[in-house]
Structure formats: structure tokens, C-alpha cells
Amino acid sequence: MNTQEYMIALGQQARQAASQMASADTGQKNRALLAMAAALDAARPRLEQANAEDMQAGRAKGLDAAMLDRLELTSARIDNMIEGLHQVAALADPIGGITGMNYRPSGIQVGKMRVPLGVIGIIYESRPNVTAEAASLCIKSGNATILRGGSEALKSNQAIAECIISGLREAGLPETAVQVVATTDREAVGQLISMPDYVDVIVPRGGKGLIERIAKDARVPVIKHLDGVCHVYIDRAADKVKAINIALNAKTHRYGTCNTMETLLVHNEQASAVLPDLAERYQASGVELRGCPETLKLLPLIKAADESDWSTEYLAPVLAIKVVSSLEQAIQHINQYGSHHTDAIVTESYTDARVFLRAVDSSSVIVNASTRFADGFEYGLGAEIGISTDKIHARGPVGLEGLTSEKYVVLGDGHVRQ
Amino acid sequence: MNTQEYMIALGQQARQAASQMASADTGQKNRALLAMAAALDAARPRLEQANAEDMQAGRAKGLDAAMLDRLELTSARIDNMIEGLHQVAALADPIGGITGMNYRPSGIQVGKMRVPLGVIGIIYESRPNVTAEAASLCIKSGNATILRGGSEALKSNQAIAECIISGLREAGLPETAVQVVATTDREAVGQLISMPDYVDVIVPRGGKGLIERIAKDARVPVIKHLDGVCHVYIDRAADKVKAINIALNAKTHRYGTCNTMETLLVHNEQASAVLPDLAERYQASGVELRGCPETLKLLPLIKAADESDWSTEYLAPVLAIKVVSSLEQAIQHINQYGSHHTDAIVTESYTDARVFLRAVDSSSVIVNASTRFADGFEYGLGAEIGISTDKIHARGPVGLEGLTSEKYVVLGDGHVRQ
């Protein structure tokens, strides 16, 4: 069997499993998740062995330190996978819920029932714990899934997959509801994203390059995350203490996350009050500052920002700063240079807050809180398959509901159309 | 300016208009819709003249009678366009509505605000009244739109567009919020569906060939409708009178609509009770019947169905009939051969209804009512841009809400992430 035939076979099996998963009851799905958690716990030596082999091969292949770190399945990470499965089991089951069931003038009743999407293809890079995380969300939302992890994590992923399959088996669910692609042939990805008959949606997780490539070539819908060029705007009516706390937290809490602030916008009437203090504290944390001409007047020692800084996701201790002369200019800058991910205003003005909330076209729009809150757990989704920067289907942090759709249900009593 | 440059210019103008439309208030959007209605009423002679020119050119080009019928802008159709604009003005404005605003353990409040998608490209064939219909839905949902109608309706569409633009102008909204493509060059479609920077979603309306081609080539998401292979299943526990009424209505109320039944499934314990009566009444209406071997035993004079009949959308007075031996077999047939559009069960069994509702994977699943009810107006959406057979984003009849997305809104009081 060549790679194409192999992927089609996985697709056909997934499609079959999906219809069983759609009708699986909540207790059965939860039993599978808890059985997987128990299986992972029992398989620790096997998981560590498989991961050690991947790590060794990775070192031999010359993977860099960051990549090796992501690849490593420490005991704490196994704990986290197990804990994650328990958490997903504890979440409410979205499937089958009916909303808006109302009578129509014709006498029929019409509502909507939440249903799984069907088959979800997930493509990710080195971190093997994604295997358990992604599988658990797909199972709970009644979907079948085909998981394609990084080739460097193949042995770890397969050891985790064995635990997942034993959990499915124990709960009487189809073992093909979760399939880990067993080949490292890159053609497998091309095939996975080109089978609309067998795969309903693709969720790519990883670097921007991977995601752009997949979005460009896919023949099925893609739920994706591209850039996080996030802003904090310190409004004319900002409280100085809140402004400084939020601007510091949004940048320095973590540098490598997508909801980290990359550009700080400051109203010109606030600039002299907040920028010198802020600059001192950023520099104490080792953050490199790059300013617009107005900023440079107040902070003459920092680097000048150029046009490309306004649209750069640094993912590093670097911050661009721009002074603006109005709320409208701030909003315009955010909508033009930002990535429509997460943007915050700091203000005590009711009207400015209201205008900002309505006009900023981002998946999360925040008043008086740090951009770092843009996260499925902080938002109460209970779990997160990713953050979508698309507007279609799912926007912002994507939890179980993003892996579902709704169908209309109609109840009559022999009604016919007149 | 070549066609590509022209389409990019339309796209850039639409993108600019979209941000103004997103912030337009409800009253302003309604004033625009009512002003358009008044402008159409005042422009009747101009509309009729433009349409007469299209009709004449169409006849000269040898368009068939069905196409000429769709192209014609009768006085009653102008009345309908005007009435449609009043109806859309009367609908609730979905934009800006906030739901689920709850406090989180961190102290922030998180909810979701409904927002427009941005720029919607609509591609349709001969019917010029779609121009006003589609424009009105896009305006009310705060979107900008680029409309590409059939080349045979160009003059009619442009006359309607003049009325739309005068309505936008009167309400102080950007005139480029609705742009009708002024060239008949087919390259315009190819360009419209390949500009993710300027167009957020494409809604194609028309024949299956057109829609398949667009879905295949589009570089932006497509909300689409393919087949309507709809079923009525007469269950073992069906009431005979309801079964006959529903089966007749679902087939004979209209033959050419996507929610018309194309295959009738009958439980074998019901077949001898209902099929002879039904067959007589279908034949009295001129419906050609094609049966499975079991059906042929009861109705020996009808044609035998072959494998292709089970997946054919006749859009004509033809009906395929199959006898099944269980509810499960009916569900399996529907999920395998149907188009996941609209499927109904006739039953008095609580349990059978519950199983059918959950297991049938279609955009509308109906108990004891005709498939013909699957329609935005019957469902209370107030208006319909189309019926989606996709699962992603919008499924089933698509009203204003299908042209919107949601963004997260977060309210804090200086909160930072710990």
C-alpha cells in the first residue's frame, strides 16, 4: 500500500467511526477518557522508553535545544496529559443539546441540535502530549480524528496512541475513532488535507510556515491560527497604575505566546506620564524598546521603530511603541497593522471603552485587562484545541464547541406545506 | 485597467466600506433599506426598460424559456423586491449583540459580541431580483458586498444597483458598501474568489456545476449548497394518514426545489398498507415511480430503480421508492446516499423519533412534517441568503446570522494574568 492508499484507508475508517461516535452517549465517551488516563499512567515506562528513543534520534539528527525541549515527555508532562484527560471528561457534553425550540405560525416546532463535525484532521509538530490532548477533545465532541504528529515524535506518539486505543476499546467505542498516522512520509499531509470525502476539517498547530502552507493547499476547511500581533492602547482617560500594570503584564508575563503584546499605543496626553516609568521597568526586565518619532522625544536612548515593526510578531523581549493623537487613530492602527488576534484598551472612559469594543476587529477585544487572558482556560472553555484568527466558523480560543456544528430539528404532527 | 486590476480596486473599496458598515447603527441601516425600496418604486420605468433590453439580448442569444423566465423582471417581481427590503428592515439587527457575559474566577468578565464577517462576494446566475435581496441581507448584517450576477442580466442588475446606491447615499452609508461587478469578463469570478485580503467569504447561488467549480477554485471560504437528495421515511410505527399526506406534499408541492423529496423509504410492515394508495395518487399527479425489488412486488407496473437512482436529485416529477426492513437500515441509507440536506421520518414511536433525530446527519432532520418546510422563512429566519449543505460555519437555511461571526469581549478593572 502506498502513502496515498494508506491515507485513504485511514479516511474511510475514520468516516465509519465518526457515525458511531456521533451517537455515542456521554457516559461512554467519559469512560473512554478515564480509561485512557489510567492506561497512560500504567504505561509510563513504555512511554518513557519510546520518548527516549525519539530524543536520541533527535539529538543524532541535530535538532536544536528548543525542539528537543518540546519533544521531551517528562514525568510532569505525562502527569499533565493524565490530568487533561480527567478535565475533558469533567466538561459538559456539547453534543445533542437542543436550543431555540420554538413554534412557528405553521404549527411546526423548529430548533437546533448540536452535532459533531465528523472527521477532524490534526497536524502538529514536535510536542507528543498534543496527541492525547487533541484526541480527548475530538472524542468528547463526538468526532473521529486522524492525528499527524511530527516525524521526530513518531515513537512517542505511537506509544500514546496505544493507550488511547485501549481506552476506546474498554468503553466499547470504535478503535479507529482516533488514528495516528504511522508513516513519516510527507505526502501523508498532502493527502490528509485533500480528502473532502473523508475529512471535514483540518486543524494545523505549529509554526506559521506550516499553517500557511496547509491553508493554501487544503481542499477542506481549515481552522487556523496565524499571527498574534497584539496591542495595548493606553487611552487619554487611562488610569496610570492600571495602564502600567497591564502594559507590563501583557509584554513580560511570557514572551513567546501569541497573546503577548507586540506594540504599545499611547495617547499623546498620557505619553509623558507613563512612558518614562514604563520604559525603566521594561528595561529592567531586559525588553528592547523601539519607538516612533514622538516616543523617541520622550525616550531618546531607545531604537527607532521602522514601518515593519508595526506588523511584526516578535515572540521575544522586544516591544514597539507608538504615540497616537486620538482613540480613532489607535483603532485604525490596530485594524490596519494588527493580526486581528487580541487587543486591549486601558481607559476609565465609558464612551471610549464602548467605541473600542465595537470598532476593533479582533477575535478578543479587552477593556482594562491584560491581553494574556486570551486563552480557552481563562475564558472558561475548559480546554482549547487552538486559537482561531479566522472569522468563519470559530474565532478566538476554540474549545469543544468549535469542533461541532448545529443541525435544524423540526417537530410536526403531520404538517404539510400549504 | 484590466479585469484583475478592476476587481482588486472593487475589493479595496469594499474592505474600506466594510469597516464603516461594521460601526453603522441599526437606524441608519434600516433607513438605507427603506430608501432603496422607495428608489426601486420610483425607478420602475427605468428597471423595466433595462430588463427589456436584457430580455431582447437573451432572446437573440437563444436563451431557453426557463432562463428567460428567471431573467424577467415583472411588475410583481419588482413588488417582491420592494416588499423584501421592507421585511429585512423590520428584522432584528444581529450586530453588536452580546451573549454569555459571565465572571471568571480571575475576576474578568467574558462574553461574545456578534460582528459582521466583513466583505461577502455573491455570485449568482440570471435572476436580477437576487441583486436587491442579497444586498439587503449584507447591509443589515453590517457587511460590504461585491455582487457578480449573470452576464445576461447585466443591465437589469445595474439599474437595481443604482437604486441601492442611492439608498446608501441617502442614509449616509458608503456607496461602495454594495458594488455590482460591471464587466461580463469571466475572469472577474476567478479574481473575486482569489482575494483573501479583500473578500472574507463567497456565497455562490445557482446550478451545481457553477457551485462545484467555485468551491474547487476558491481561495476564501465558501458557503455553499450542492445537492438536495431528500428523503421521507415511513416508519413501522407511522400513522397512515400522516404518512400519505407528508409523502405527497414532500414530492408534489413543488418539483424543482432543493427540499423536495427524491427518495421515499418505507418500512416493510407498512409497505402494503401505504404504497398502493400512494402510488395511485402520485400517478394521478403525473409522478413517475421507480422502485426497488420489494417495491416492484407491490407495484409491478412501475419502473425498476437502479443504483444511481438512490443518489439522484431529479428536480422533476420522478420518485425513487425503497422498502427497508428497519429504522437502522433507513438511517444508513439516508446517511450513505442522501446529500445531508433535509430528511424526515413519519412515526408515532417516541423512541424511533429520538433515534432518527440524533443519527441522521443532515442540515434539517424532521419528524412528522414535510421536507418542504426546510426554508429560512418557514424556520423564522425572516430572510435567507441560501441553504448550506456544509457543516462548517453555517448549516441549513442561512439568514442574517450566517453572515456574521462573534468576537470575545473581555471587561476587567486593571486585571493582569498571574
From TrEMBL, chains A, B:
GO molecular function: glutamate-5-semialdehyde dehydrogenase activity; NADP binding
InterPro entries xref list: Ald_DH/histidinol_DH (IPR016161), Ald_DH_C (IPR016163), Ald_DH_N (IPR016162), Aldehyde_DH_dom (IPR015590), G-glutamylP_reductase_CS (IPR020593), Glu-5-SA_DH (IPR012134), GPR_dom (IPR000965)
One GO CC annotation: cytoplasm
Subcellular location: Cytoplasm
This protein's UniProt keywords: Amino-acid biosynthesis, Cytoplasm, NADP, Oxidoreductase, Proline biosynthesis
Transmembrane segments: none
Pathway(s) the chain acts in: Amino-acid biosynthesis; L-proline biosynthesis; L-glutamate 5-semialdehyde from L-glutamate: step 2/2
GO biological process, one term: L-proline biosynthetic process
Function: Catalyzes the NADPH-dependent reduction of L-glutamate 5-phosphate into L-glutamate 5-semialdehyde and phosphate. The product spontaneously undergoes cyclization to form 1-pyrroline-5-carboxylate.
Stored NCBIfam families: PRK00197.1, proA
Protein name: Gamma-glutamyl phosphate reductase
Organism of origin: Nitrincola iocasae
